[in-house]
Amino acid sequence: LAGMGSRVAAFLADTLIIVLMSIAVTVLFMTVGFSLSALGNEMTEGAVSLLGAIYIFVITFLYWGYYFFFEWINWGQTPGKQLLGIRVSMADGAPADIVACATRNVVRIVDLILASLGITFFIMIFTPRYQRLGDLAAGTVVVRRRRLTFEDIYEAARRSEEKAAEIMARASSR
To answer: Is residue 141 classed as helix, strand or coil in its secondary structure?
Structure first.
């Protein structure tokens, strides 16, 4: 299992990436907004308001979508988790599925509110597998990623060869 320190460090790394992406999106929207408002007619006022609404949606989607997208597509790893060598998996060790990734990241909002009060850390400390509410709701855990060794690869190849020989033997005996 991943400890609190590596989880917090991964969260901070991911937060830095999200902040940098948010700054880029903000600069883009401000540039378009200033260009529209410079035109100064009634139609552009409505466009600027629409642009503001789209901006709020994009920033919200960026924050939630970042964690969901990377955890779902990248075998349970955001760039921060990858940097720290940890990943999200189902409690039984299987890769986190799309529903689990979505669930844990919808509940992330509650976790962040509770974290501002220090409650999330207590929840993690008092759960046997250092789970936050999102993990408990989704049935996931954050684990250390195991590095493959040459022996692991050799053993997997040996087992594959044995399995192939067994299948061939069964097929030839029919």
So the answer is: strand
